[in-house]
Amino acid sequence: LVSVANGAAAWLLTSHANTHVKPNQPHFTHGDTRDSRTGYPLHLRSHVTGDEGTHDRISLHFATLAACFYLAPDDFHLSTIDDNILISIQVLRITRATLIMARPTDHVVIGIDFGTTFSGFVHNDRVAVSYSAKPDAPDDIKVIKSWPGGNNVLHDKVPSEITYGVMPRLADERKVLEDDAGDSQHNKLNTITPTRKRKADDAFDLSVFKTPTSTRKANASGTKDNAQMRWGFEVRTDESRLSCLKLLLDPDQSLPEFVSLDSIKQQLATSEKNVSSAVADYLRALFDHTKEMLQRQYGELFVSTISFRVVLTVPAVWSDAAKDATLKAAKTAGMGENIITISEPEAAAVYALQSIQHNRLSVGQNFTVIDAGGGTVDLITYAIRQLTPLRLEEVARGTGECCGAVFLNTAFEKWVQKKIGNKAFHSLRLDHPKTWLTASQFFEDYVKRKFDPASDESWSIPLPGLDQNPAAGLEGGYLFMSASDVESIFEPILGKVISLVDRQIRSVQDLGETVSALILVGGFGQSACLAKCLHWQISKSSPSIGVLQPLNAWTAVVRGAVLRGLEGQELVLSRKARRHYGIAASQDFDERIHSADVKYWDHFQQCWKAKDQMQWYIKKGETVPSDEPILFSFYRCFSMAFNKHASNELIVCEDDDAPSQLNARTRTICVMQSDLTDVPAPKWHQKHGLNGPYKRLNYKLGMQIESGGLSFDLRVDDVTYGKVTTTFD
Question: Which homologous superfamily does the CATH classification assign to the domain defined by 357-549?
Fold first, then answer.
């Protein structure tokens, strides 16, 4: 039957290739009774009109329909990518049972999770691509597993690394190690430490959008301009590379000690790149490969008639500037203008709660989602407000800390150094890099994943080629590691995670609420050790709280991103503000409350004013509705020659209690540029002052705190006008 259907479809491709059909008018070659309203054959209506919104999915061109009918398998199986950037693709399923053609109005949802898991020479940053046709079945989302340079080995994720073929890595690393070999106090393995942060005025610019650097188009195989560019698995082990791309976008983030800032600067300078353009190159290669895989599987016709909706996840603890830089890099990479951003813990929560059977959930329950990844552990507590469709509200302000799984690898590295001594350890890293890679990979794959605090199991870490050192436990090419040694590595990190969870639970209880369960997601969230320790510790004070580990916990973030894109609207009804948001404005001077140093004369209104007075429109911890903008009220006086553009600074404060005027505790996060040219003339009020006529405009800026960032609009008398652009500091 399938062969007959495919043969018929192939015949239709040739016999009807030149059939012309008007847009929005289905075409069939046989006579049949049609629905007068839709124009579709009545005997097909039951297959294609399951609800009122699906009529327009019927093919508008019968030859095109035949092509998709012929190409569509019962289930799509694409391939994947590697390094903590996860990508999921939700493809509208085309099956033989339904003659539904994907038109330009249909779309593929692509979720991208830029993760940060790294472990010395062992890089685990990954990007994954997946797809599904069932938004109400989160476990049905499939994952792409084939990547350039992957040697035909299937990988769920691809390394988030890129190289432009400059500066061999080994020479740079050898110099660093030799410089540090004699330093017994610090014993740094690179030019920076894990706690060193980059300043915004570093030698390389963080924003391609502020520099004249050209952004060259690249694909998976490179182009004329980026002939030596390679990404993901294509990067060779002996090459210097740009890694930890996610952290490079945020100057406030710390870099791991194995990443050389000098090497990054040199690569960028030699390649005439900056961080944002390098990230855009990587994302473009990733996006091009995704489209290539779709085209290879379903044909060029399918890809050309489908639109793409990208959902990008960002860390909850990131600055608004870093979120904006990520969004701009994605747009530069050709991912479109309507990119949705969502915070990583929120995406994880969406997937985790969707994956739990609804008979185990009830309206009013509170769940704390613990997104334990490589670099950070983020917590957020949601209350269920509706089950179908799922709708949530944030109960308590989210928290997070740098205590992810990567710090276990860092602690392991320090343990090995302490066991065999500084000199032997530097020799290991310098002269036997593959030996160190073997040891690191063994710790990653076995010790880290299988450690059980209730077990006395010991381990033998492979270190082939190293001299015997029985006193240190190094014999026959293996380093002995006892259960207590492993416990000493895990205990500090687990303690930080447990402390974070305990504080989050208490913050919910302080509001008179209770937590029903903890949901562990993320790579570290899959750890049985973490789940056991959490359950044991939390049950002491709150025995009713369970610990859940949903399926696909490692890819929960990217799967949640896909579900968010499929939903098409916010699943979270309200959020808690992470900081105070406001503007600095002038007020009528009052000597009882204003100091003399803020006093100035207003020439327009001919009165004394107090400058730099804060008006806080959103307070830290306040509940902010997702679908209602916060309105900032302004009135501005302009000269008659005014060019109808205005700028306002958005001010934030991280403290619990915000000050009443600008000071060192406040900072500007962005400048909002408002285009007022579309505001009708009657809205401008002409005034007369001692210095002549001037114009006054009363307007409002609407700001929405979305999951992955901020958005703005301009309003006059409740009507939206013009455009508001933002420039982040």
Answer: ATPase, nucleotide binding domain (3.30.420.40)
Q: How far apart are CA 44 and CA 55, in angstroms?
A: 11
Report which of 490, 556, 559 is spatially closest to residue 523, judged by C-alpha positions. Answer: 556
**342, 707 in Cβ contact below 8 A?**
yes
3-state secondary structure at position 155: coil
**Closest Cα to residue 110, out of 138, 149, 143, 84?**
143
CATH code assigned to 577-728: 2.60.34
Strand locations in 589-689, DSSP E?
599-602, 607-618, 623-625, 630-638, 645-653, 666-675, 685-689
Both tokens assigned to 633: 């009220």
Give the percent of the chain with pLDDT over 90.
26
Where in the chain are all domains bearing CATH 2.60.34? Answer: 577-728
Q: Model confidence at 383, in pLDDT bands (50, 70, 90)? A: very high
- Provide CB contacts within 8 A for 635, sequence distance 6+: 696, 697, 698, 699
Q: HSE (CB half, 13 Å, CA atoms) of 323?
A: 26
Q: Around 294, how many Cα atoms within 13 Å sit in the side-chain half-sphere?
A: 29
CA 127 – CA 140 distance, rounded (Å): 19
Residues 6+ apart with CB under 8 A from 711: 703, 704
Structure tokens at 554: 């490692």
Which has the closest alpha carbon to 333: 390, 301, 386, 289?
289
Domain with CATH 3.30.420.40 in the chain: 357-549
Rg (CA), the chain: 29
Q: How far apart are CA 294 and CA 303, in angstroms?
A: 7
The fraction of the chain above a pLDDT of 70, given in percent, is 71
Q: DSSP string spanning 396-464?
A: EEEEEES-STHHHHHHHHHHHHHHH-HHHHHHHHHH-HHHHHHHHHHIIIIIHHH--TT----EEEE-T
CB-based contact 263:330 (threshold 8 Å): no
pLDDT at residue 188 in the model: 36
Amino acid at 693: P
Q: Say what the pTM is.
A: 0.71
Residue pair 58/64 in contact (Cβ under 8 Å)? The answer is no
Span 203-209, average pLDDT: 34
Instruction: Evaluate whether 726 touches 713 at the Cβ level (below 8 Å).
Output: no
Q: Which residue has the tokens 């999921």?
A: 88
Q: How many CB atoms lie within 10 A of CB 178?
A: 11
Q: Give strand pairing partners of 114.
A: 85
Cα–Cα dist 26/346, whole Å: 41
